[in-house]
Design brief:
- With 318 residues, the chain is mainly beta.
- Strands 10-11-12-14-15-16-17-18 form an eight-stranded antiparallel beta barrel. It has a seven-stranded antiparallel β-sheet with strand order 2-3-4-5-6-7-9.
- It starts with 6 loop residues before the first helix and ends in a 17-residue tail after the last strand.
Length: 318
């Protein structure tokens, strides 16, 4: 069932924000993009991540269970090129571990979300700041953490497999104070005050066909955690082709089949035991201007260790 952001919820959402208008994209993206021969193809980073999804995030290193997240962000998150975000459990969203970085009260406040599949074969990281000086930085990084092999079609699945679990996003609307950002000095004017991105939680279900090498899915039960769990529309991850390395890129649509952005990711592990990827969408709330969301998903294949409860209702993949 579609979950709509009602007028009342939207008004409450905006009233809770420090800014009447969301911050817009910074516009500056990573500097390690590949030159592509096809003029119509979207540029990708050296890691193979499309510009629209990777945006300002160049690379990230996450070690499960660790208290730090290493991030190379373009830019303004920290003085070193590689910034170290510290564990911040207060900002956790179901299924993902949170980290944060803010050098002083008038520097940008960044939040990182990270996760790895149960077998360690696929990793994903989402980073975003809450906006300052009219712009915000954000993006998603994902990678195969070890050897990869495609799922081998067999009876009874014929190549059809499912992945399910939790989704986390961040929205370019300042979370209401008090929050985890450093307290502002009394002299701080709103024009120079950094914001904290509003966190989004949700569920995600993905079907893949390794006979035809295609993938699609949906994110549902989306809600803005920092704004009283205000509901947001479901979003649909339109069919995308999977290449021989397990990577894919596709479009995202709203319930009315209007394109609102893109999604991309990679399968990882032995027989594609996991999947990780990102979502980049904008202009998905009709009554708000310039809203944008970056989202992350890191999921185990149904029928493998650590899979989601909904997988009990899915035909086993083996």
């Amino acid at each position: 069932m579609t979950r709509l952001l009602t007028t009342a919820a939207l008004m409450a959402l905006l009233a809770a924000c420090d800014n009447s208008q969301p911050f817009t994209f910074n516009g500056a993206t990573t500097e390690d993009e590949e030159v592509v021969e096809d003029p119509d193809a979207e540029p990708v980073s050296e890691a193979g991540i499309p510009e629209s999804v990777g945006n300002n995030l160049e690379t990230a290193t996450y070690r499960p269970g660790g208290n730090f997240l290493s991030v190379q962000m373009y830019s303004l998150d920290s003085t070193p090129v590689t910034a170290v975000y510290e564990r911040n459990a207060a900002l956790d969203v179901p299924g993902y571990r949170a980290f944060s970085q803010q050098e002083d009260p008038l520097d940008r406040m960044f939040i990182g979300m990270a996760q790895q599949t149960a077998d360690g074969g696929t990793t994903g990281v989402l980073v975003m700041d809450g906006g300052q000086f009219n712009k915000f930085f954000g993006g998603v990084y994902y990678e195969q953490s070890g050897a990869y092999s495609a799922h081998v079609p067999n009876q009874p699945d014929n190549g059809l497999v499912s992945y399910a679990g939790k989704y986390v996003g961040m929205l370019n609307i300042d979370a209401p104070r008090p929050n985890e950002a450093l307290p502002l000095p009394a002299s701080a004017d709103p024009a120079i005050s950094p914001g904290q991105p509003a966190r989004v939680s949700g569920d995600i279900f993905i079907n893949a066909d390794f006979a035809d090498n295609t993938v699609n899915g949906a994110v549902f039960n989306r809600q803005v955690v920092d704004l009283g769990n205000a509901p947001l529309d479901d979003i649909f991850l339109i069919v995308a082709d999977v290449d021989e390395d397990g990577r894919f890129t596709g479009d995202v649509e709203d319930p009315g089949q209007t394109g609102i952005g893109s999604w991309a990711g990679t399968f990882g592990g032995v027989q594609a035991s996991g999947i990780a990827g990102g979502v980049a969408i904008e202009d998905f709330i009709p009554t708000v201007e310039n809203e944008a969301e970056f989202g992350l998903f890191v999921l185990n294949k149904c029928g493998t260790r650590g899979d989601a409860a909904i997988c009990d209702d899915v035909q086993p993949n083996f």
